[in-house]
Amino acid sequence: MNQFPSREQVECLRKQYPPGTMIQLTADMQGERFRAGDIGKVISIDDAGQIHLAWQKGGPLAIIPGVDSFREIITEPLDLNPYLDKGNLMINGYYVDACADNGIERTNAWGKAEICEGYYCRIYKTEKDLHDGAYCDDFCLAVGHEITDMSDAALIKGLKEHIGTNRSVSKRKKTKAKGKHSHER
Description:
By secondary structure, the protein is α+β, with helices and mostly antiparallel strands. It has helices at residues 7-16, 127-132, 152-165; strands at 22-25, 39-45, 51-55, 60-63, 70-73, 84-85, 88-91, 94-107, 113-124, 134-135, 137-142, 175-176. It has two domains: 7-73, SH3 type barrels (Roll); 82-177, no CATH class. A hairpin with a 2-residue loop joins strand 7 and strand 8. The chain starts with 6 loop residues before the first helix and ends in a 9-residue tail after the last strand. The relative contact order is 0.14.
């Protein structure tokens, strides 16, 4: 059985982690001197999908998506003020609420299901809809899939991409919020 990623999966990794991207380990690398919190800068991604880094503490060692735990570091903080309307988050003309969710299921580059952290988001057409809980779209943004990390910058970028590419947002009917989501269970 072939455990190597396809060319398409490698290209996807190369787009997601271009050279210069800062990476931080979120767990110790077994059998290696690199520990959670160590930081490196992406140099390249080889044809086997391994991400080669220049580590701040020195030494060459690649990380392997799906084996090693890591996150992208967004180096520039984001000023949320341009996205606020009377204290409410507004993206591309829609009101948005988002909350952390650590139970988002996604399929990784090797076709295996994984549980990710990220955000559960709802879109509202008007401020009244927001206050009434009548959303027109709901979705999740998972770290390592739709967003790079749990930063405000990654959330805003993910929301802009979803709203900008999802033309069905404006066509959906309003839905009253019911039930609980994985972050509330």
